[in-house]
Amino acid sequence: MKPTFVSHKDLPPFVPVGAKVLILGSLPSVASREAGFYYMHPTNRFYATLAGLWQEAVPLSVEERKQFLTKHGIALYDTIESCEIVGSSDSSIRSVVSAKQTIEKIEAKQKLPVFTTGKKAHAIYQKYIGNNDVVLPSPSAANAAFSLEDLKIAYRVLLPFLEEEKKKC
Asked: Could you give the domains of the chain?
């Protein structure tokens, strides 16, 4: 299969008012690019993982997912601004242009702790953007090493940042 040039021009960062964390993937999947939002592949476990942290129903539509992320203070973007890729395979990514400038603009407006999902996102962040020690496992179904329960346990690292406001009350 021939690589395709992919750019983030049609999928801006999702940064709701009151965001408390920024979660960065590598690059949206084909399904996410087609849907116009993040983690939209039907087998991706991102929203099931997060919903499990609060024992909530998994949001399904783009609008439900945006409301869920806003409610919990979660901003989303990626470490790659553009690249060549075959399908949705991180291992095929070539000719990377990092999203450093966009991420710096987000961070200039709001100082958010940054979390990366998966090894590729972490490697791109470390190489082009800055130091990030918190790597969440990839929620992709291709990451068979982690069950949904394993993902929920790993993603609990987010809770102290996301529930900070509740502790102040």
From this structure: 4-157 (3.40.470.10)
